[in-house]
Amino acid sequence: SIFNLVHQSDLITKIVLACLIMLSAFCIWIVFFKVITLKIEKQAIKKINKKTASSNNIEDFIRAAKKYPCSSAGKIIIYGSLLFEKLNQGNNTISTHISNENSDKLKILLEHEIERRLLEKEDFLSVLGTSAAVSPLIGLFGTIWSLVHSFVAISKHKSVDISVVAPGIAKALITTLAGLFVAIPTLIFYH
To answer: Among 68, 96, 168, 182, which is least packed, fewest CB within 10 Å?
Structure first.
């Protein structure tokens, strides 16, 4: 069985398999974390949209955003309202209008804030991408290592009998399988 082959493997092969298992567990944690985070974000956006769908008043948007201050949408709206107030401070009258120059500044600053929030949401995605790229190579390392040991066993027995070759090749292929087991789902979730 596979478990017997793993049990009979040498220390390096076991270390490679342990690394792949830990990498797989970490990637699964990232995927679940991202799915839950995105679900919460989506719900907050839907609720903010629902509360402000029939309104043209900026105050309604700010009130709705303040109910969801941890969401990216809420943070962006609150940040935008603070910028609007800051850019409008020079006016002597309370106004809901903004000059063209200040409008351009507001637009640029809001775009930077949106980019910052998007980058915040991309945390750990590089780990998924790296894991998808590296895990097959780690598995290949384990495969090559086990194949070398298989050839050493062949040279010791001085025969090319299937009973001598098969266990070593099977051990080698387990690490390849483990590397692909990590890489394929990780790459899918990364994209």
So the answer is: 96
Neighbouring C-beta atoms of residue 177, cutoff 10 Å? 16
Amino acid at 185: P
Q: What percent of the chain is predicted at pLDDT more than 70?
A: 92
82 alpha carbon, distance to own chain's centre: 31
Phi-psi region of 10 (alpha: psi -120 to 50; beta: other; left: phi over 0): beta
Q: How far apart are CA 131 and CA 125, in angstroms?
A: 10
CA distance 21 to 29: 12
Q: How far is CA 95 from CA 2, 87, 90, 104, 156, in A?
A: 73, 11, 11, 17, 89
Residue in the structure block whose two tokens are 């290592």? 145
Residues 39-57, mean pLDDT to the nearest whole number: 81
Q: How far apart are CA 21 and CA 179, in angstroms?
A: 9
